[in-house]
Amino acid sequence: MRDPQSIPLNEDARLIPVWSMVAAGVAFVVVEYYWWFILPATRHHPPAPLGLRIYFNLSWGLLAALYFLMVGYVSRDAPRRSMSVRFWMMICFVLPGGIGAVLYFLLRLPVTSRCAACGTHVHNEFHFCPQCAYQLNANCGNCFRSVRITDQFCTRCGHELAEDHMPARLRAIAD
User: What whole-number distance in Å separates Cα of residue 75 and Cα of residue 174?
Assistant: First the structure.
């Protein structure tokens, strides 16, 4: 598994890099300049009503800006998920109309983290490390579904969680 970057999940706003924000701003300004100054000068018929022109100008400008913001998001989110940044950015640029970004969101892998015991990259939904069997998350000893560390009973099967002899480190977090 590739070495993922570590960006805290609660800092999703930092997933859009500054270069992407600058490129989005430049794209918006360029599209507005084109719609307001270049395109009207090349037409040989009267312009559309002002309201319609404003609507189309802003719509195309925002779409261009959104495109660059999405590519920037993919460039920061892919390493967190142990995915190839170059491949997904190329897909986002090559496939027209945002289809590449939609494909990315449909096919992206779950966020990965490290096992505290051996350092292996594991998916966040894993209960145990596949290399050292270290318990990563609290789970029911009867149905093996995820439970919160503060639960007294399993929400799926009603099993009393105190009987499971949860590791001391998970009990310490619950206290």
Answer: 36
Domain boundaries, the chain: 12-110
Distance between CA 107 and CA 138 in Å, rounded? 28
What was the pLDDT predicted at 7?
54
Tell me how far apart the alpha carbons of residues 33 and 39 are, in angstroms, rounded to a whole number. Answer: 9
**How far is 30 from 26, CA to CA, in rounded Å?**
6
* Helix (H), strand (E) at residue 78: helix 50-80
Tokens 């000893």 belong to: 141
Q: What is the pLDDT of residues 25-34, one digit of tens each?
A: 999 999 999 9
Distance CA 122, CA 135 (A): 12
117/28 Cα distance (integer angstroms): 48
Pick the range with the lowest mean pLDDT from 39-53, 133-147, 154-168: 154-168
